[in-house]
UniProtKB/TrEMBL annotation:
Its EC number is 1.1.1.44. One of its GO terms (molecular function) is phosphogluconate dehydrogenase (decarboxylating) activity. It comes from Sesamum calycinum. This is phosphogluconate dehydrogenase (NADP(+)-dependent, decarboxylating). Pathway: Carbohydrate degradation; pentose phosphate pathway; D-ribulose 5-phosphate from D-glucose 6-phosphate (oxidative stage): step 3/3.
Length: 298
């Protein structure tokens, strides 16, 4: 089941890479086929990248042009992605990339509503693409490759953490590196990337998160500038990249020692007396925020 959730994330990230290259970079299907074929020779080598390259090369046998352009943009599902997200919620494991991929499928299913929305916003001056930006095509292709790879690391980190949490809950003692090896043997997400995951868990079987493995950490750091450029470019162009954006937010949240959660906890204590912990002394505390604020304001 969680394997399928990871698959959802993979497919969504690839679709976003395609959208940026096609919508902003103006790559043709012939160019896209070439790009994905090249990507399939390197760090992104995988079954899904391979079949994506194949798809871009298939002509429509019932009309002109390429078949991919005639496929309705409405994605089906059988429920495994939803089950993965439900499990993540039950185990309190953050899986934003997988969740984003599921939400994207939900939204894709609203084809009629989206068609009407497009008319409404087009009349207000919002076209499909907000701004046509001049880009260096080769630079964009390389940036998107790096963004896709970095996002993939985050997506798999979420999936592996979910499996780890379930294993701990059930006392299964699953070997995550061995799972990666098995998946590489023959499944939808089989990829050379899984070798890196196996090596990461071989180095440290108690690894808290793939992001803190030395090799993956270096790869993320090396690619983050390109990753941020792609997400910013997509935002400025009005192109949704929920998977890449969620992956980047996951990385930025996980790597920060201090988050604004202190304010959220203070709010919870204010309206619900949920208490809070302090950074400078142990224990659980409650403050009469309203009374103090009332005295100050008066």
């Amino acid at each position: 089941m969680i394997h399928n959730g990871i698959e959802y994330g993979d497919m969504q990230l690839i679709a976003e890479a395609y959208d940026v290259l096609k919508s902003v970079g103006k790559l043709s299907n012939e160019e896209l086929k070439k790009v994905f074929s090249e990507w399939n020779k390197g760090e992104l080598l995988s079954f899904l990248i391979e079949i994506t390259a194949d798809i871009f090369g298939i002509k429509d046998d019932k009309g002109d042009g390429y078949l991919v352009d005639k496929v309705l943009d409405k994605t089906g599902m059988k429920g495994t992605g939803k089950w993965t997200v439900q499990q993540a919620a039950e185990l309190s494991v953050a899986a934003p990339t997988i969740e984003a991929s599921l939400d994207s499928r939900f939204l894709s299913g609203l084809k009629e509503e989206r068609t009407e929305a497009a008319k409404v916003f087009k009349s207000g001056g919002f076209g499909d693409i907000l701004t046509d930006q001049v880009v260096d095509k080769e630079k964009l292709i390389d940036d998107v490759r790096q963004a896709l790879y970095a996002s993939k690391i985050c997506s798999y980190a979420q999936g592996m953490n979910l499996i780890r949490a379930k294993s701990i809950e059930k006392g299964w003692d699953l070997k995550l590196g061995e799972l990666a090896r098995i998946w590489k043997g023959g499944c939808i997400i089989r990829a050379i990337f899984l070798d890196r995951i196996k090596k990461a868990y071989d180095r440290n079987s108690e690894l808290a998160n793939l992001l803190v493995d030395p090799e993956f950490a270096k790869e993320i750091i090396d690619r983050q500038s390109a990753w941020r450029r792609v997400v910013c470019l997509a935002i400025n162009s009005g192109i949704s990249t929920p998977g890449m954006s969620a992956s980047l937010a996951y990385f930025d949240t996980y790597r920060r020692e201090r988050l604004p959660a202190n304010l959220v906890q203070a709010q919870r204590d204010y309206f619900g007396a949920h208490t809070y912990e302090r950074t400078d002394m142990p224990g659980s505390f409650h403050t009469e925020w309203f009374k103090i604020a009332k005295n100050i304001n008066n």
